Automatic annotation (TrEMBL):
GO MF, one annotated term: threonine-phosphate decarboxylase activity
Pathway(s) it belongs to: Cofactor biosynthesis; adenosylcobalamin biosynthesis
Protein name, per record: Cobalamin biosynthesis protein CobD
Localization in the cell: Cell membrane
A GO CC annotation given for this chain: plasma membrane
Principal place of residence: membrane
Entry similarity comment: Belongs to the CobD/CbiB family.
Keywords: Cell membrane, Cobalamin biosynthesis, Membrane, Transmembrane, Transmembrane helix
Alphabetized Pfam families for the sequence: CobD_Cbib
NCBIfam families per UniProt: PRK07630.1
Length: 316
């Protein structure tokens, strides 16, 4: 049932992608904002209470409905699984940005590529060259694929899969919504959301990195993972992007590394001695976007193959 649920949800999403501003997501965002406004007293314990309240309000009904569907018939449970996977997956949700950037770069329209990238990342892209645009697009695509697809896959395989998939997506959203906005960056309220999502995403992130290595350049992916993952401030981001960059043969994250090092202690560091160019791969180019698409699709097929084999083993 798990394999069929994911397969049907993927097929439906290919035909009818769910928009990022759909009503269900909007209501969840309003709920998270309301809980934050009501519980945020500037302490970690209030953030913990708010996190459990939001997650509980969304996962417990999902689990109860799944249990009722199982009691009714396997087909009702299948339908509920497909609906939840469709709502939690995001394979096509942000692909229009990626495709628009890819087409703009292919036609030589760098200004349009910067505009699309700025809409996607909410960063200032006005001074970025083609290499930086390509690099950031690949980085955002790899991370979006992990958090909107592979992370959901992993948790959907757990007992009470629909509730676990909802839990993963809600935890991922709260980790962003309660820490990334400028007024929340120094707040203790969001620290628990960040910490708990780190552990929720610990295994899925490493499985995603392994998948990228298996379907890409295995040797460079593993080498980059072992030697360069710690250059990112976020460990999970470092693991996925270092492995993904190695698998693609593209260097990712280096301008950010230099900026972080210089901001930390500009007077004590000789930037020319850091040997940042030793990371395997070449500078990102528009062709790297097409390579990233191939890597993601191959990784998706690998996940589906393993899931099919697991389902077959359970049936026999």
């Amino acid at each position: 049932m798990t394999f069929i649920s994911i397969l049907l949800a993927l097929l439906i999403e290919q035909l009818k992608p769910l928009r990022a501003d759909n009503p269900i997501y909007t209501q969840i965002q309003h709920l998270a904002d309301k809980i934050e406004a009501s519980f945020n007293a500037g302490t970690v314990k209030h953030g913990r209470l708010g996190w459990w309240l939001v997650v509980g309000l969304l996962t417990i009904p999902t689990a109860l409905i799944y249990w009722l569907c199982l009691r009714l018939s396997p087909f009702a449970a299948l339908a509920w699984n497909v609906l939840i996977v469709y709502l939690t997956l995001g394979f096509r949700r942000y692909s229009h940005y990626f495709t628009s950037i890819q087409l703009a770069l292919s036609s030589g329209d760098e200004e349009a590529a910067r505009r699309f990238l700025a809409e996607w990342t909410h960063l200032d892209t006005s001074d970025m060259d083609v290499s930086e645009i390509s690099r950031l697009t690949v980085e955002r695509a790899l991370m979006a694929t992990h958090r909107n697809v592979f992370g959901v896959f992993f948790w959907f395989l757990m007992p009470v899969g629909p509730a676990c998939a909802v839990m993963y997506r809600v935890a991922e959203y709260l980790a962003r919504a309660w820490t990334e906005p400028e007024h929340m960056q120094d707040e203790a309220f969001g620290q628990y959301a960040t910490k708990v999502f780190y552990w929720i995403d610990w295994v899925p992130a490493r499985l995603t990195a392994v998948a990228f290595a298996v379907v890409g350049n295995f040797e460079d992916a593993v080498y980059s993972w072992r030697n360069y993952a710690d250059r990112w401030k976020d460990e999970v981001v470092g693991i996925i992007l270092s492995a993904g960059g190695g698998a693609l043969g593209v260097r990712l994250g280096e301008p950010e590394e230099k900026a972080m090092i210089l901001q930390a202690d500009a007077s004590a560091v000789d930037i020319d001695s850091l040997d940042l160019e030793s990371q395997p791969g070449t500078e990102a180019t528009p062709r790297a976007l097409q390579s990233a698409v191939g890597l993601v699709w191959r990784a998706l097929l690998l996940w589906m193959l393993l899931l099919a084999l697991l389902s077959f083993a359970v049936w026999i």
